[in-house]
Design a protein that fits this description.
By secondary structure, the protein is α+β, with helices and mostly antiparallel strands. It contains three helices and ten strands. The chain has one domain. Strands 1-2-3-10 form a four-stranded antiparallel β-sheet, with no helix packed on it. Strands 8-7-6-9 form a four-stranded mixed β-sheet. Strands 4-5 form a two-stranded antiparallel sheet. The chain is globular, with a radius of gyration of 14 Å. The model has no long low-confidence stretch (mean pLDDT 93).
Length: 145
């Protein structure tokens, strides 16, 4: 599948990920709130988006490491919040954050964050908020409408 055809903006305001069979919100938390988030803040953000029924659904969650890494594609390019290049599909709202929190955590109080500039993933302190954001995802076949 061509990188440009992997994502589709849907009529109900979510991005369909044809490769991973997922749905993403088009804005990350930075674009939505205008502030950086700790990992705990990202989890509160999920609750807010569930309560407002974003995109007509209440089952939003943090992406796994694999799901977040799937957003990165070196063939694709748009600008992040600083006007620097990130490798994410143009269906997503531009001026996004670079570092995305995921659901994967370890016993040392760290969570995996994915970098959309270079496609790397690393553990970061969950209390870090400097330039950290999240993108919410859902499984379209789940029952959490």
């Amino acid at each position: 599948m061509d990188a440009k055809d992997m994502y589709e903006d849907t009529p109900h305001g979510v991005i369909a990920d044809k490769k991973m069979n997922l749905e993403w919100l088009p804005k990350d938390s930075w674009g939505d709130l205008g502030k950086w988030l700790t990992w705990d803040d990202a989890n509160y953000y999920i609750q807010t988006m569930r309560n407002v029924y974003a995109g007509g659904h209440a089952d939003w969650r943090l992406p796994t490491k694999e799901e977040a890494l799937s957003l990165f594609n070196e063939e694709l390019s748009q600008k992040d919040w600083q006007g620097e290049e990130v490798h994410i599909h143009s269906a997503f709202v531009p001026k996004c954050g670079t570092m995305i929190w995921t659901s994967e955590v370890n016993d040392a109080g760290q969570a995996v964050a994915v970098n959309l500039k270079d496609g790397t993933a690393e553990f970061a302190d969950k209390m870090n908020r400097d330039h950290y954001t999240t993108r919410l995802v859902r499984n379209p076949n789940s029952r959490g409408k």
